[in-house]
User: Which sequence fits this backbone?
DNA sequence: TGTTTTCCCATCGTCTCTCGATGGGAGTAT
DNA sequence: ATACTCCCATCGAGAGACGATGGGAAAACA
């Protein structure tokens, strides 16, 4: 692994979670993740936008153009019903994985 | 991500941890991970052996041929001093990431 | 004895993901 | 005017995980 700002395989889940409460634009999602994670999760634009394309393709989010709070053209993403299901499912699977990994990492050594 | 048996980016750490207490052969590492994780971590051979090659190349493990408990030819892997450092470092970084992700996932939604 | 099962090694090709670099455009502040 | 911030997006490289594949040798079974 080279330099990694986020754990591979978790980005879609994180984005969906960011949108669970309210719609956000791409830039806003990145800001939100950085803030809530206390500067640990710094998702770059070249990871973010491809991820959003994936989510759109899968029907987990939908997008609409609008204006940002700063009066700029922005694309707002909203989570869909299918997206919420996906979020729940990915969440469960993630917890399962983390639990397993922690059993390994916590084993007497 | 298609079907994923392990969290991407965590395999090297898991292998190093498997070897922290005692040397094991490849097959044994896979068995160990499956057992300790209670059948969650099922690392296939096509993930495992390339990972072991990586670890060898990086000097984090060393290998020697021997005989398994079942009287079969087996390649035993031992963690090196550098490997232990790497394990500690990856461990810390992993905890940092998980903490961050959980702050996001736990945020009021 | 012959066949199957279990144990153990390893690679190749494909797919997916992340990221640095790049290239816009349009408000706002200097 | 110029720079800075905000906001969009793609491309190419590099890496990791995995299904498929192909051994080989001991043990169990028929």
Assistant:
């Amino acid at each position: 692994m080279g330099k990694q700002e986020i754990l591979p395989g978790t980005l879609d889940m994180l984005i969906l979670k960011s949108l669970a409460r309210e719609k956000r634009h791409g830039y806003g999602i990145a800001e939100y993740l950085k803030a809530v994670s206390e500067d640990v999760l710094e998702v770059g634009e070249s990871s973010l936008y491809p991820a959003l394309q994936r989510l759109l393709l899968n029907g987990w989010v939908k997008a609409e153009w609008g204006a940002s709070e700063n009066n700029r053209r922005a694309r707002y993403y909203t989570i869909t019903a299918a997206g919420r299901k996906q979020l729940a499912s990915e969440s469960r699977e993630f917890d399962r994985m983390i639990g397993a990994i922690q059993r390994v990492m916590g084993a007497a050594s």
